[in-house]
Design goal:
It contains 12 helices and 13 strands. With 349 residues, the protein is an alpha+beta fold. It folds into 3 domains: 104 residues, no CATH class; 154 residues, Jelly Rolls; 80 residues, Arc Repressor Mutant, subunit A. The protein has a 4-stranded antiparallel beta sheet. Strands 4-9-6-7 form a 4-stranded antiparallel beta sheet. β6 and β7 form a beta hairpin. The N terminus is likely disordered.
């Protein structure tokens, strides 16, 4: 297989490049491919440019997906671009024809070297220091080894978009550490936060299993460590390992129960005050009998609270002031403390 040539006449393509000044994105618009599995080489080149320039993970996944294409020229183009990327370990375009490139494992970091966002580097799933009891990836050693073979580890800053509502599912993200917000938006732009995903949970599982689009948008709430598994690899693991299927079923069941409780709380609460009281109680840790006070973990902004209960930030600010005046909550520095749990529970009924 020969490396792709780029001396393509632009007259053969109806190419329009739009530079969006606010983000520096490049969009390449071309006609559909003439052969099944074919992807325009100029589009792949633009994906590589975005990956090199902004470390955009979605552009990387486009290249990786194209590297496994059934179309010979597309596969060669993608592998050549991956081979020359600064994000991948060494390898030549010639070597790209014989193997599928995956994002490299993290480099060995010396003990005193600063790591991205202050997170400790994860080398592989088998030696993962984040995994605890109850994590989705808490498999037996043999299955963990299989998972490691299809994993793409990454670290993301706060505010990074993993996927957006309506996007075709490419796979799942296993959250190793940090928190991720799942949200949906109306046509008018009103945002409703559906859930905050904690470490150990899997994101996008329902869409990956069904092959449907992602039902919500996933955004990191803080610096996170994530493990991406492509949909094809996930389905193969579900068929090959029964314990992966059991963990997937438990995760989907937990998501269903959580969604049921949230819908019930939103519908049954008679007022915004009741919805806010329910939210504060759901975010507070369980306390020993007789202990009234509880610090909220994690802390939320007024905007995030409003997005969780389907209200406005101004309404939430006013309601919190009322609860504080009634001595149900108080502020301890930047933390919010439930002062009178019984009174708050009476509002949530």
């Amino acid at each position: 297989m020969h490396a792709p040539q780029w001396n393509v006449g632009f007259g053969n393509y109806a190419l329009q490049t739009v530079v969006a000044e606010n983000r520096g994105l490049i969009e390449v618009m071309t006609p559909g491919p003439s052969h099944p599995g074919e992807i325009d080489p100029l589009y792949l080149f633009a994906c590589r440019a975005e990956w090199e320039r902004r470390s955009d993970p979605s552009s990387a996944w486009e290249l990786i997906s194209a590297a496994e294409s059934s179309h010979e020229d597309t596969r060669a183009n993608a592998r050549s671009l991956l081979a020359s990327s600064r994000h991948l370990e060494g390898g030549s375009p010639a070597a790209a024809g014989s193997q599928v490139f995956r994002p490299r494992r993290f480099r060995t970091v010396e003990e005193n070297m600063k790591t991205p966002y202050g997170l400790e580097i994860i080398e592989n799933c088998a030696d993962c220091f984040c995994r605890k009891a109850g994590f989705f990836c808490g498999f037996s050693p043999g299955v963990v080894e299989s998972l490691d073979q299809v994993s793409h580890h990454s670290t993301m800053p706060a505010g990074a978009i993993l996927f957006v509502e309506g996007q075709i599912s490419r796979g799942v993200f296993i959250l190793c550490s940090g928190r991720v917000k799942l949200s949906t938006a109306s046509r008018e732009g009103k945002v409703l936060i559906l859930k905050t995903v904690e470490a150990g949970e899997v994101i996008g599982l329902s869409a990956a299993v069904s092959g449907a689009s992602y039902e919500m948008t996933a955004e990191t709430a803080m610096p996170c460590q994530l493990n991406f598994v492509g949909r094809k690899d996930l389905l193969e693991m579900l068929h090959a390992h029964s314990e992966v299927g059991v963990h997937a079923a438990l995760s989907l069941s937990a998501d269903f129960q959580s969604a049921y409780r949230d819908i019930r709380d939103l519908v049954m609460a008679r007022s915004s005050e009741g919805k806010l009281a329910r939210l504060l109680l759901s975010c507070s840790p369980k306390q020993p009998a007789g202990c009234e006070e509880a610090h909220l973990r994690p802390a939320m902004t007024h905007e995030e609270m409003a997005q969780r209960i389907g209200s406005s930030r101004e309404t939430v600010t006013r309601l919190l002031s009322d609860l504080k005046r009634k001595h149900m909550i108080r502020l301890d520095g930047a933390a919010l403390v439930i002062w009178n749990r019984n009174a708050l529970e009476s509002l949530a009924v």
